[in-house]
Design goal:
Length: about 500
Amino acid sequence: MAKHEHARVAVIGSGFGGLGAAVRLRREGITDFVVLERADSVGGTWRDNSYPGCACDVPSHLYSFSFAPNPDWPRTFSGQRHIRAYLEHVTDTFGIRPHLRLNHEVLRMEWDADALRWEIETNSGSFSAEVVVSATGPLSDPKIPDIPGLSDFPGKVFHSARWDHDYDLTGKRVAMIGTGASAIQIVPAIQPQVRRLTLFQRTPPWVMPRMDRNITGAERRLHRALPFTATLRRGLLWGIRELQVGAFTKHPGELGLVEKLARANIARAVKDPALRAKLTPSYRIGCKRILLSNTYYPAVAQPNVDVVASGLREVRGSTLVGADGSETEVDAIVFGTGFHVTDMPIAPRVIGADGRSLADVWKDGMESLRGATAAGFPNWMTIIGPNTGLGNSSMILMIESQLNYMADYLRQLNVLGGRTALAARPSAVNAWNRKVQARMERTVWKSGGCESWYLDANGRNTTLWPGTTGEFRRETRQVDLSEYEVIRAPRTAPAAASRPSRTKKEAAK
């Protein structure tokens, strides 16, 4: 028989969200849980994204858990290698390894209304859990556009999040597709080694200088000896970003000064007027994420770099054809085209109380209650759910707020007693999302004149939070039971722990 394991809580994913959930469970005294991870190690997006130049665009002392400060960050904006090492350190420090089930990709999870638990099928065995915490993250599954002729390209093709380190780009003609956060780090890293680099750009990003430097040994010694100094540093970084939120969410006109600084940044690095025109956006700064780099513009201005400012239309053998009709011969194509964000790949695999998948329920747009729970999916919650993203600060702040909500959710279940589930009321979900979307109308993300990955197919911003991180923390401090239906198990139902797991054939009926 296939292996079956029951746990009180199943956490899906082991990035910042999943590891944060695991740590919080242990701190709440809950040790009956598993962390299901499809890969062979922890780290989430910081494991998967190992491309040249990969680093975070949020200062390290803010992009780390408040309960696990790291006094030894080497740079103000640390690279992928150090962030991944930090997550491994968190895993060991808080005793998470015994809970990990690596190489366990969730294929399907279905709510069992009789037993009040989730039945979970993975590629390495089955599980059941009273509560599921989905922390698969929005930046986990790469998106490659459907380009005519791409399948017949004779050279190398890979996505930035699946970098092929065995393929040597030295002396190659390389096409970089996209100009997002990954691309502006990759371009300066590979430009010196390639023979020719062609950048296919649909929409130019606004790029500001990156105030990055080495953190001195004296600073690190100070933070180790006096931990409150690191806390103070984190608080200052947080406060500055909180003060900026109003310009993004209420008064986009205030971003005009920032836009002037960004234009000056382009002018300093790019002397060719034609190239400068290609690289200058026509939308309000902040509508798409503001990117940080000191090396992107100088790299693009090098003689071995071409910018096709119309995007990629088709591939004909080894020739890439731009939307403007230009043709470029290349040996390799690197896609920096983002991820499935508004169409979460986990959603089709989650089957709720009425037999519908989360993807079906969300077919007209993602909606959840306080970014955590969805109507029709009892005892299921997500970390970094709909409308919890940020445009200018650290996602770790939002994750920790959601962990507070998760902890109180589990406390409420304890107080209610017995085999109990909480199901978000559709009226509460609708009310929350009406409020969020009403606030969204004033934001630069809706009024700034751009198309971005923040928006779904219907043009709704189901990704970002239209307020401060402090507001979100207050909104998720505790569970309001009036927003939930309390479901109790039938008296005649078998005990969860003794109920046998259904086979895949039974689950499919």
